[in-house]
What does this fold into?
Amino acid sequence: MATGTMVSEAMKASEALKHEGIDAGVLNIHTIKPLDNAAIIQAAKRSGAVVSIEEHSIHGGLGSAIAEVLIENYPVPMKIIGVQDRFGESGEYEELLQILGLNAENIVKQARKLMSVKT
It folds into this structure.
């Protein structure tokens, strides 16, 4: 589940995982409020695990909102990928994605880890 420009990174990760035999769908969360709870729950039921990615703090953003929906309706293993609790920095966009772990390679890595705890 991703929002904004992170949707394209999620799509790249999904393609990479497909080559490994892992069917990882991408849900574009185009609005944070109102949040599409039904789509989130449906995706969680279909996949059994959720990775969220956003260009935002891991605290109080998209991942937190998704976690709230899932914990009350359909709890599944979840990983929130976003900006860790740290000071920002300047640089080229692609370089910052790499530094912050907001790229397809890290999404793939985190999805693999999540698969090991998936119910």
In short: Strands lie at 50-57, 78-83. The CA atoms of residues 58 and 82 lie 5 Å apart.
